[in-house]
Amino acid sequence: MHVLILGGTTEARRLAELLAVDALPGLRVTTSLAGRVTAPRLPPGEVRVGGFGGADGLAAWLTEHRVGAVVDATHPFAGVMSVHAVTAAATARIPLLALRRPGWTPVAGDVWHEAGSLEEAAGLLPSLGRRVFLTTGRMGLPAFADLDDLWFLVRSVDAPGAPAPSRREVLLDRGPFTLDGERELLRRHRIDVVVTKDSGGAATAPKLTAAREAGLPVVVVRRPPVPAGVRVVGGPEQARDWLRRAGDLRTGE
Ligand code: NAP
């Protein structure tokens, strides 16, 4: 069976690693990356890079490459790709699984402000502080570009382009991050407020702990919903088990 993993996350890479260790005879694994990051961490197995050309292009790719199952292991905020995956898998008549790491939940001492979008998060900021630690990724910077009265520490994997906030310092870095490191960033840059997507996972969670300790508010952007009707698992091991079962069904074992 040929499995397509829609990737770009730690979990997608981990799933490809688990399948490589399994080394099931006849199993072919391709991970697809959007191509946003200059030097991505590559998973084992085959890798393809770049968009498919919408849901129709993805459906055609699935058929042409005889894909037997798709795992949508994209980032929880890659909402467009997740919708395309549903349409394309239905068109190609193959099973689809969504692999989503669980979101974060506040604990005692957290001061979280939920926002439904990056634009809503930007609207909340002027009432919360003047020095902002912005960790929502370079693609989302335009939403904050008009906040000329605020100063931003922007952390992203690759350098952001325009439009972006005029008063900013850019920190190029990629998780996992440590609690000590996050404490130090908040202190050194005299941060008043942190902005994050609800990405979930351990790699970028220490900023939440550091903010809690410092009594700082955090603006948390809510995830888009997983498309209705899609089966969801929370971890790579469960996705591997689902694929094993899908493979058994196809071979009639
Ligand atoms: P998106 O808005 O949902 O998708 C936009 C377009 O990018 C899609 O229509 C598709 O182009 C292409 N695309 C997205 N994921 C792809 C993949 N895995 N393989 C091939 N093409 C893909 O996606 P996004 O939010 O820009 O995220 C892009 C990638 O970065 C994803 O792989 C995601 O896992 C990763 N990522 C995203 C975030 C985030 O916060 N959004 C954070 C970390 C990593 P076509 O229509 O041409 O097929």
Structure described in brief:
The chain has 253 residues and is of the alpha/beta class. The protein has helices at residues 10-22, 54-64, 79-92, 118-124, 179-188, 206-214, 236-251; strands at residues 2-6, 28-33, 46-49, 67-72, 96-99, 111-115, 131-134, 151-156, 168-172, 193-197, 217-221, 231-233.
Detail the topology: elements first, then pairings.
Layout: E1 2-6, H1 10-22, E2 28-33, E3 46-49, H2 54-64, E4 67-72, H3 79-92, E5 96-99, E6 111-115, H4 118-124, E7 131-134, E8 151-156, E9 168-172, H5 179-188, E10 193-197, H6 206-214, E11 217-221, E12 231-233, H7 236-251
Helix pairs in contact: 1-7, 2-3, 5-6
Structural description of this entry:
There is one protein chain. By secondary structure, the chain is an alpha/beta fold. It contains seven helices and twelve strands. The strands form two sheets. Strands 3-2-1-4-5-12 form a six-stranded parallel sheet, with helices on both faces. Helix 3 links the parallel strand 4 (67-72) and strand 5. Helix 2 (54-64) crosses helix 3 and helix 5 (179-188) packs across helix 6 (206-214). The longest helix has 16 residues, at 236-251. The radius of gyration is 20 Å and the shape is elongated. The mean pLDDT is 96. Bound molecules: NADP nicotinamide-adenine-dinucleotide phosphate (NAP). NADP nicotinamide-adenine-dinucleotide phosphate (NAP) binds next to strand 2, helix 2 and helix 3. NADP nicotinamide-adenine-dinucleotide phosphate binds next to strand 2, helix 2 and helix 3.
